[in-house]
Amino acid sequence: MKLLLSGRALTAAAVAVATLVTGGSAAGAASAPAHPAAAAAPDISLTNVKAHLAQLQSIATANGGNRAHGRAGYQASLDYVKAKLDAAGFTTRVQRFTASGRTGYNLIADWPGGDANQVVMAGSHLDSVTSGPGINDNGSGSSAVLETALAVARSGYQPGKHLRFAWWGAEELGLVGSRAYVNSLGSAERARISGYLNFDMIGSPNPGYFVYDDDPTIERTFKDYFARLGIATEIETEGDGRSDHAPFKNAGVPVGGLFSGADYRKTSAQAAKWGGTVGQPFDRCYHSSCDTTANIDDTALDHNSDAIAYAVWELSQ
Fold first, then answer.
1. Which of 54, 67, 101, 251 is the most exposed place for a label (fewest CB within 10 A)?
2. Residue 295 contacts residue 133 (beta carbons within 8 Å)
3. Which residues contact 137 (CB under 8 A, 6 or more apart)?
4. Given 147, 171, 236, 314, the catalytic residue
5. Annotation marks residue 234 as catalytic
6. Residue 11: CB partners within 8 Å, gap ≥ 6?
7. Is the pTM of this model over 0.85?
C-alpha cells in the first residue's frame, strides 16, 4: 500500500503508456458457454500461496533487498508471475509506462471465454518500496491473486463472465500503474468491467479483517463469506483511496476488496474480535526491511486467499 503523497510528488510521477501485447486480446478470446450450474470455489492452498511468497522473497534477496519500481527485483517478480500464468493457459500482456524516470510494467492476464461485455477483474500491486522486500505489502495480495488464477486454470472453470487478473507496477509511487491502465481504456472498455476486486496486504502479522464498502454487491459477497466462518469484519478505512481500486472507482467501475491492516494500531475491541496484540500496529514492518516471509500471519492469509476465490467464483457466474 502506498504512502500518502503530496500533489507535487504525484505530479512528478508522470505517466506515458505503451502497451506490449503477448498473444491476443481479451476481446478476441473465443467465448465459452456459461457453466451449466453454479460452480463452487475451490479451497486455495496456503502452501502454494506461501511458495509464491518464498519466491518473491528470494527475488528480493538476490536484487538488493527489494522489488521496487524500475529495479531488477520488480522485473524478476513480474517474470515469475507471467511464466506461471503463461504455462497455465492465460493470455498475458505487459503494459509499459514511465514514472520517476524509470520504466514500469503492469501484467494483465485474461482467462479465455466468458462474456467479454461483463469482465470481472481481480488485482494487486506487485511492487515493493525500496526499503524492503514487500512480502506482506504486497506479496501477500499478489501471491493470493496468482494462486486464485492458477486455480481457475486447474479447475477448467468456464464462468459466464470474462475473468481478468492484474498485477500493478509503481503503486508505491502513487497508484501509477493502475492509473495508467484505467486511463488507457476507452469509455466502452471501462463500461465492460462489471467489478474490480483489489487485494493489498492480506497477511498482516497482527491482523484485522477489513472489507471495502464501495460496491454493495461486492461488499456483501465478502461479508457473507466471513460470516460463514464466524469471523466479524469491519469496514476498511485505513487504506481508503490509497490502493489500486481508486483509479477504477474514480472512473465509475464498481470496486471492492480486502485488507488486513497496515500501521494503524489494533484497539481493544478489535483484539476481542480477532485476537492479537492491543495497541500494536496491524503490521509493525509496514514499509520496512523486516517485511519478509516472517512477517505473515498464516491464518489471515489463508482466510483471505479463500475469500478471494469465493468472490471471483460468485461474481463471475
1. 101
2. no
3. 1, 128, 129, 200, 201, 262, 283, 286, 287, 291
4. 171
5. no
6. none
7. yes
